[in-house]
Amino acid sequence: MIIAKNIALLGVSFFLLWFGAKYLVESASRIAEKFGISDLVIGLTVVAFGTSAPEFAVTIGAAFKGQADISVSNIVGSNIFNLGFILGTVAMVRSITTSRKLVYRDGIFMILVTLLLLLFFHDLHLSRVEGFILIGILISYMIVLFYKKEVLEEEELSHEKATWKDMFILPASITGVILGGHLLVDSASYLARIGGISEWVIGVTIVAAGTSAPEMATSLAAVIKGKHGISAGNLIGSDLFNILGVLGLAGVLMPLQINPLGYDSLIMLCGMVALVVFLMRTGWRLSRVEGMLLFGIGIVRWIFDFMK
User: Fold this and answer.
1) 10-residue averages of pLDDT along the chain (308 residues)
2) Which one of 1.20.1420.30, 3.40.50.300, 3.40.30.10, 2.40.50.180 gives the CATH number of domain 36-150+198-306?
3) CA-to-CA distance for 119 and 36, rounded, in angstroms?
């Protein structure tokens, strides 16, 4: 009976993720056009913050419990998963068109932020002051994004206009995506345990995928609709928010101390970020072949985790 219940919840989670992502992309696009905001900016901010809610909950909860390794590894692991497995999968479904702003403004900024995090953790410690610095950078970045109005691209224009309903559809769809990710983690983890899969394997696969499921569903729905700005912006924005907002707040609440293995993962994240920005620049698109490369790196990382 419990097994049947969890199978049903698994189905419900996929339903919530997909339809929540579908309406999230549609309502966010209409609202963005209504206020003259580009798909890229709405993807980097509102959509990214909404889909990063699971990482926020896990990281802040771990920080309150004094589990610094979980706080940092959750963010680093999620960011690598976003840029490898998810971005690779999305690009394999349909190549993603990039732009100069996405590469030179947001991509380079993401490289600098990741290098700054590496610098802050050179002593394996993130202080409250460093946490405040990260939060300050995030606030400044958001002000710049919304202050500098961007000309909407042709692909961003829609025949549908935003209505008062979108003010309810947007938060409701974000809630649906978050709830779907939560149900996916719980039900899939239970079924995996019944199947004899270890807690460690569940953590690095199902839980990692589950907390990143909102990003996956939203970016896939966006690229299928041709909303490349929301698709790529969601993943880059989520990674930036994870580092600057989530880790920044966690560091302010409770200074974080990690072990040397965590620093090795940070170095890997820096390399992953640099590779993604480089691939986005080549031909101003992420091709299916490049998507396969990123996907492959994500799989290799999983295998490497299993061997630890």
Assistant:
1) 81 80 79 78 83 76 72 79 92 92 94 96 93 96 80 50 82 84 74 65 61 82 84 90 92 85 83 96 94 92 67
2) 1.20.1420.30
3) 37
